[in-house]
Design goal:
The protein is α+β, with helices and mostly antiparallel strands. The chain has 10 helices and 21 strands. Strands 1, 2, 8, 9, 10, 11, 19 and 20 form an 8-stranded mixed beta sheet that branches. It has an 8-stranded mixed beta sheet with strand order 18-12-17-16-13-5-6-21, with helices on both faces. Helix 1 packs parallel to helix 3, helix 2 runs parallel beside helix 5 and helix 5 runs antiparallel to helix 7. The chain is elongated, with a radius of gyration of 21 Å. The N and C termini lie far apart (63 Å). The relative contact order is 0.19. The C terminus is likely disordered.
Length: 421
């Protein structure tokens, strides 16, 4: 079916990872998709995208290959640091997914996925902000209002990151974790481990609140961040920025993370970990990514959940559009809630509780002094927080047209001992 410029089979709000993934899956399956993105281009995004092996697998299922991610940095594991100790662990082995992760700039990730959605057949309209939903006589969403006018749609996918407040079962949402980051030029930009700091301190030895991370991007830069995990935290982006500035004075000199090597301002916001009272689908709108608050409650990592939710939303929409009757369509769309909960929600209640505990300095001190030196225990923890969804991977593309999913090999390294600054 051919749609006019002011209409589409599916309107996707936002060209971030979740929205572009949903658009690419649906377009590859032959559906008409229009993506509306408020920013004029992806270059305005700062920071790093650190993709776990589970996220890399989602890229492969989507159809992205090595040529699409050329120049991105491969990671072989995570390095935990705290209390004068550091322990490097390989990514846990899990059948059906790669043994490596990937890092790149956030702008590169967004641009790659959006461009791939367009190559798959989606229409992308940048510089267009969605301001509200439009509704039919029954109250169901039948399109959106934008800064350029109204656009009608059979189904709407909200991948706005939670910035759109326009009804459609929005409900209430808790504050969510907060994080800030800054980019630096560094000789260690090719570090093959994502570095996670469980305890922070200033240069004078004073303990600092929160948790930190350093991600090498392979492009001459690293991204350094600080966050507060608990979704009901009273921390603010400004407070975390102050912690980041003090923490930088205590970091090992070989990172060369100084004010002179910083390439941009500190930026940050709330993460998509907050609890929402509304369903993932309501009144013709499916929410994905941060708009659905599906980021990992312990790590704050949201790329795996964004790509997964985008794929599962595409499957639900593709199934719905095969029905000619409204009742059949609604049943398929409503089923998205249960499917997404099974894929991502198994460990969320426990994860939220763990995040609250880990925001307690006493608990963090216990972890670094007792748990960190015990490698088998830390391997178990890493395996649990990066556990993939063991259900079969399903897309809305027929098996005969799916690209082959490959499993790439990596050579994990190991490292442990006292941190020699």
């Amino acid at each position: 079916m051919t749609y006019p410029p002011d209409a589409a089979g599916v309107v996707v709000i936002g060209a971030g990872p979740a929205g572009s993934a949903a658009a690419a899956h649906l377009s590859a399956a032959g559906h008409d998709v229009l993506v509306l993105e408020r920013t004029p281009d992806a270059s305005t995004r700062t920071g790093a995208a650190a993709l776990s092996p589970a996220a890399v697998r989602e890229l492969e299922v989507l159809g992205l290959g090595d040529a699409d991610t050329e120049g991105w940095q491969r990671t072989t594991g995570v390095r935990f640091v705290g209390g004068g100790m550091r322990l490097a662990l390989a990514w846990p082995d899990a059948g059906g997914r790669p043994a490596h992760g990937l890092t790149t700039s956030r702008s590169a990730l967004d641009d790659t996925l959006a461009s791939y959605a367009v190559r798959s057949g989606a229409r992308l309209r940048r510089g267009t902000e969605v301001t509200s939903f439009t509704r039919d006589a029954a109250g169901r969403v039948d399109g959106v209002t934008t800064t350029d006018g109204a656009v009608r749609a059979d189904v709407v996918i909200d991948a706005s990151g939670g910035t759109l407040d326009a009804g459609a079962g929005v409900g209430t949402r808790s504050r969510g974790a907060v994080a800030v980051s800054a980019d630096f030029e560094s000789p260690r930009h090719t570090d093959d481990h994502v570095e996670s700091w469980l305890r922070l301190s200033a240069g004078d030895g004073a303990a600092l609140p929160g948790h930190g991370w350093i991600v090498g991007r392979g492009d001459g830069r690293v991204t350094v961040g600080v966050g507060a995990l608990a979704e009901d935290t009273t921390a603010t982006a400004d407070a975390c920025a102050g912690v980041l500035q003090r923490w930088l004075t205590a970091l090992p000199a070989n990172w060369q993370l100084t004010e002179s090597s910083m390439t941009g301002a500190v930026s940050g916001d709330r993460l998509g970990t907050g609890v929402t009272t509304s369903p993932y689908y309501a009144d013709g709108v499916l929410r994905v990514g941060d708009a659905a608050s599906v980021a990992h409650p312990v790590t704050g990592e949201g790329f795996t959940a964004a790509l997964t939710s985008g794929r599962l939303a595409a499957v639900a929409v593709a199934r719905a559009l095969t029905h000619s009757g409204a009742a059949g369509r609604e049943a398929e769309l409503t089923a998205y809630d249960a499917v997404l909960a099974r894929a991502l929600g198994r460990h969320r209640p426990l994860g939220r509780a763990a995040a609250r505990v880990l925001d307690n300095p006493r608990a963090t001190r216990l972890v670094t002094t007792w748990a960190l030196p015990r490698e088998p225990l830390m391997k178990l923890v890493l395996a649990r927080v990066t556990a993939p969804n063991h259900t079969a991977v399903e897309t809305c593309v027929t098996p005969s047209t799916m690209k082959r999913v490959t499993r790439a090999a990596a050579h994990p390294g190991t490292e442990r001992g006292v941190d020699q600054r």
